[in-house]
Amino acid sequence: MATSASGGAAPASLPVSLDDVRLAQKTLSGVARTTAIEGSRHLSSLVGSPVQLKCENLQRTGSFKLRGAYVRIAGLSAGERRRGVVAASAGNHAQGVALAASLLGVRSTVFMPVGAPLPKVAATREYGARVRMHGQVVDEALEAAKEYAYSTGAVLIHPFDHSDVVAGQGTVGLELLEQCPEVRTVVVGVGGGGLVAGIAVVLKALRPDIRVVGVQAAGAAAYPASLAAGEPVALDSLSTMADGIKVARPGDIPFAIAGALVDEIVTVSEDALSSALLLCLERAKMVVEPAGASPVAALLSAPRSFEGPVTAVLSGGNVDPLVLQRTLRHGMAAAGRYLSLRLRVPDRPGALAALLRELSVVDANVLDVSHVRTDPRLGLDEAEVELHLETKGPEHCVDVSSSLKAAGYRVMS
């Protein structure tokens, strides 16, 4: 699904300018890394023109969030710094705020939802923040952070809805334009919109011919409805593996910029996100979280709709190992490289061994076998076998199922 925004040169009334981003770049000198640009032969062959990956997953703290957080905190007055800062996040913003505050000698408190991945909680503490667990989702943690700010005087560092934060994220645009001056399309994941807004400010000021495309998960796509309404609209429900772009409502400041400068917002499925994460790991040798892989998911979903050369921003690499395991398995299934089957076999000695021999003939690698012999659904002479197989693609999956049926097995799924 695609939604058009207006695109074009930056109106003078927008809350962030090119000069703001250039000033942010000076502030970040010696703090944020100039992250690498890596080419992707596989994606280039799909798109039909060169595709480059801007590797913000290799940024300090593992995502672009350090940029905006540092610029925001660096801009505080001495009195504000003494009161400390507070933030709410499930991971990337939390780590960015924690490290930025530590580098600037500012006390930080971060509210994280109870279900936040343990590695992200541990990293936030190690970067120097005091972590408080509150609520089940980030929105609940954010409300707690706002109450804490009100009661203590600490300054709330919003993850995307502040001009300093947007300017900091926009430094990604300055870097990629210098690294890829020939680029014609830039693809960026979108949650609250701070990153795509900052990048769009730079590109539309310096190279208005470059097309800026934002990407949202289909189950958490607040921007299409908001653009249609002409104002930020909150979603009633969110459902996506991509926690980094799982935001119910666009920020007011990013929305004003994106509505004016971003050319298009597209949405991607969960299958596309998991396939993209798998591709980044296998082909680009990059550990990327689902949100960070969303631009790659867009390229996989409609490769010939992007004018090249293309730069896709890998916004973060902070993925929980458990989420990575599940997502890779989902990605393998979506790519036809993982097949789950249930089938009935005769309940007699040697039946399971005969089934496994049949699978060896069709060259399917057995990952897991579950053998059930006692169940009300089964006949007295039946057993049910659940198989998890590693396969070689969609055609091989069809061949495996067909071969089992031809051998007389009753395949249930």
Automatic annotation (TrEMBL):
One of its GO terms (molecular function) is threonine deaminase activity. It comes from the Bacteria. Pfam families: PALP. Keywords: Allosteric enzyme, Lyase, Pyridoxal phosphate. Its EC number is 4.3.1.19. Gene3D superfamilies: 3.40.50.1100. Its cofactor is pyridoxal 5'-phosphate. Pathway: Amino-acid degradation; L-threonine degradation via propanoate pathway; propanoate from L-threonine: step 1/4. Residues 340-413 form the ACT domain. It is an enzyme of class 4 (lyase). InterPro entries: ACT_dom, ACT_ThrD-II-like, Ser/Thr_Dehydratase, Ser/Thr_deHydtase_PyrdxlP-BS, Thr_deHydtase_catblc, TrpB-like_PALP, TrpB-like_PALP_sf. In the native structure, TdcB is in a dimeric form, whereas in the TdcB-AMP complex, it exists in a tetrameric form (dimer of dimers). Belongs to the serine/threonine dehydratase family. PANTHER family: L-THREONINE DEHYDRATASE CATABOLIC TDCB (PTHR48078:SF6), THREONINE DEHYDRATASE, MITOCHONDRIAL-RELATED (PTHR48078). This is L-threonine dehydratase catabolic TdcB. The gene is ilvA.
